[in-house]
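Usage

Read records sequentially. Each one opens with the input sequence:
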Amino acid sequence: TVVPAARVLSSRASFVNLTRPSGATSAHGEAGYVGDPSEEKASLASSLVNLANTVMGTGILALPAGMATAGLVPGLAILVLTAAMGGFALFCLGRAQLKLGTHRQSFTTLGDTVRPRFSVVVELAVICNCLGSAIGYLIVATDNLLSIFGTPGGSSLVDSRRLWTAVSVGIAAPLSLLKTMDALRVTSALAVAILVAVAALVAAVYFEPSDELSPCGTVGDASCVGEKPSFGASGLETFAKFVVFANGFTCQQSLPPILSELEDPTPGRLMALIYGSARPPA
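and closes with the structure output:
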């Protein structure tokens, strides 16, 4: 059967077409099939960018402070260790989900498979983790909006933290009501692109290619530069920052819905999903 050119073009453009799923999923292989939600699947690219956005969340904001406290050598070692632990947790969770079948899975079905009603404990842990992440996002968003449009400590309306917290909630609330993770692919791609741009800007400031990108305003001026992190710290200080590094790779709560929506979920595509999404923060 020859696939019409219009359908091929629709499949290639489906990543930015939020009115249709990004995968080709119907029994006839129709691109961006809309119908039974259990048949509406996401492409590997959409699943990758959604999981990568979860990895590159608020947890990475604390990594510089953790590295400064733990030291460069222990910090890098813990970074690699926690990345491997996070990837292994994703692998175990994904394989368990694939073993239960290709139909939609959640922490409810996974938990009850281990032990009846055990899903209540798992879901409470997921709720606490997601609420903590959401609060962290709101704090970061409020601080940045306030610094851009207002004056911290000011008395006018635009200087109110409550205003910008409400604005942040107003922006995030409609996105949280979408029925699939695949529908968030464009916002996730935008978030990942912004974080990559921020990382590039930080690297540029470090190398000081020009006065505009120098932290002190002039290339070679070190008057405003703080202390450089040590190569190693005490064992207790290093161990105390372990949880900071572990949170930098926390994304396991997003895997069940993402993998349930993934088109043609196989162990190979699961590994591509895990390693592809974990690469940006590492």
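Summary fields computed downstream for this record:
- Residues 1-13 have pLDDT under 50 and may be disordered.
- The radius of gyration is 22 Å.
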